[in-house]
Every structure is written in C-alpha cells, then in structure tokens.
Amino acid sequence: MTKPNYSGTYHMVEQENVDAYLTDVNVALRKIVCMLKPTKEIIHDPETGAMKINTITTFKNFSMDFNIGKEFTEDLRIVDGRTCQTTVDWDGDKLVCVQRGEKEGRGWTHWLEGDKLHLEMRVQGVAAKQVFKKAE
User: Fold this and answer.
1) What is the pLDDT of residues 22-81, one digit of tens each?
2) How far is CA 28 from the centre of its chain?
3) For residue 30, what are the CA distances in angstroms to 17, 27, 33?
4) Alpha-carbon distance 102 to 115, whole Å?
5) Of 20, 80, 95, 118, whose CB neighbour count within 10 A is largest?
6) Could you give the CA distance from residue 66 to residue 114 in angstroms, rounded to a whole number?
7) What is the chain's mean pLDDT, rounded?
8) Higher pLDDT, residue 136 or 79
9) Is 78 left (phi over 0), alpha (psi -120 to 50) or beta?
10) Euclidean distance between CA atoms 123 and 116, whole angstroms
11) Rounded to 5 degrees, what are φ and ψ at 33?
C-alpha cells in the first residue's frame, strides 16, 4: 500500500483545547501559544521515510527531523524544556508519534483529508486538535 506524501506548506485554520493540553506550561507562555497561528512546512520523502517538519510562528520556530519507524532523541527544550525518546510510524495513512519521557501517553497523530492537515496532540488523557490548510 502506497503511503501519502505529506510534503507541502500548511497554514493553521482552527484549533481546540490547546490551553488544556498545555497545563504544564507556565500561564504566560500558554496564553501566547494559544494566540499563535503556526505554519507547518513538511518535506517528506516517501521512498526513504525521511521527514522534516518545520513549525514556524512569530514567537518561536521548531524543527523536527526524523525517519519514519526509527526511534530518536527529540530535543524539545526550545518548546517546553524537555527531551524525550520519540518514534513516528504509520498507522494506515496516519502518522502516529509516541514520545517516551516524563509524561504518560504523550504523542500526536497527523493525517490528511483533502487539502487539510489534521494534528491531534495527546498527553495524560487530554487531547488538543489543530487543522491546517495546504497553501496553494
């Protein structure tokens, strides 16, 4: 089965429950993050499984560079001061990330529906969702 190519530039168009998802982040930073409208630039090579996800905002930028199915040490100190062991793998056409570290059940899922990129972020039973629209 051929996997989808996630490559493209996507602009956030909606989000829900992000404040509850970020309860372990200080209040001031949490409020700033909830006001941001990030852009995601994804470079994906379906042949090799290499993927780079750049999240760009007016506040901070974050880059995640990995190979699908291979565990790596993710440095999230710029985001929330932590590092974790991360694996991103396929579940059908969805990309599922599992982050092993200080919090149970932390991770995210990306999937495509038409020109929309969906992101569900999870930690300790709390889920937040963002939706991005592919740039023309």
Assistant:
1) 877 778 877 888 888 999 999 999 999 999 999 999 888 888 999 999 999 887 765 666
2) 21
3) 12, 5, 5
4) 35
5) 95
6) 24
7) 89
8) 136
9) alpha
10) 23
11) -60, -40
